[in-house]
Amino acid sequence: MVTMTASQLRKELFAALRIVSDGEPVSVNWKGREVARLMPAPSPDWRDAVRQKPRLLTSPDEAFAPMGDVWQEYVP
Q: Whole-model pTM?
């Protein structure tokens, strides 16, 4: 863990953010004691975006029925 004073953090904010984005926490000290920690944000899980269960807009029989008449003009 990297430790910085509040003054250092103010001067080197983007360097501290780069450290945090690389996965390492940064401890911020003010007046000799730790007052904050910058922690990496948890990476989003792609499964959270697809929690909604897919559903058919028609009956399964109609959705998966053979489409013989559509293909007749393409089949020799």
A: 0.57
User: Alpha-carbon distance 42 to 40, whole Å?
Assistant: 6
For residue range 41-69, what is the model confidence (pLDDT) as tens digits? 988 887 777 777 777 788 888 777 776 66
All structural domains of the chain with their residue ranges: 1-41
Instruction: Provide CB contacts within 8 A for 26, sequence distance 6+.
Output: 1, 2, 3, 4, 9, 16, 19, 20, 37, 38
Q: ∠ CA 23-25-28 to the nearest 5 degrees?
A: 155
Which helix (H) or strand (E) segment holds residue 17: the answer is helix 13-21
What are the CA-CA distances from residue 45 to residues 35, 41, 50, 54, 75 (Å)? 30, 12, 10, 18, 45
Tokens of 44: 């989003």
**CATH code linked to domain 1-41:** 3.40.1620
